Input
Amino acid sequence: MTTQPLVGVLALQGDVREHVAALTECDVRVRAVRRVEELDDLHGIVLPGGESTTMSRLLETFELLDPLRERIAAGLPAYGSCAGMIMLASKVLDGRPDQHQLGGIDMIVRRNAFGRQVDSFEEDLDFTGIDGGSLHAVFIRAPWVESVSPEVEVLATVPDTPNAGAAAGRIVAVRQQSVLATAFHPELTGDGRVHRLFTKMVRAS
Output
């Protein structure tokens, strides 16, 4: 891609400003997305952290659910953090019966998995696909991935440390083709490497 790509941030709920700031540092144009027509010329989209059931309802209310699902299925690069990861999963455990999924990654995610242990958890992760050493990850009432299909690449798991407890070994970052998801919030730490990885995926699409 020779022109500067346009990346949307779903702006119905959640930590939108933080993702906008992180993407701006990656030399892309950024648009807050609240209406269907704002999907039309995007080269990629970010689904922020927040509350996945609320986001699901708002996607339906704003008539974005099916158009966004169709764009992702057609190959629009997407990145979801925390609640965004839940939305991108093919199946969610402990979700509401009326919760909608966007699909995009063939995985089963457990909602609020970390929240049952502690409300917040931090750990240094080895993350496949980024350089510069370990990545400090912040989990806030976060999901984790229970299982993935063979088509999904696991990028990071929680190391077996004294603080990890039941989270040790759990999958917390994945990629399937042009769709990326993390259980943690890189937009909150000032480390732009995950966003740079995503914008690299956007440029390559």
Summary: The chain has a mean pLDDT of 90. The first helix runs from residue 16 to 24. The helical segments are 16-24, 52-61, 65-73, 83-88, 193-204.
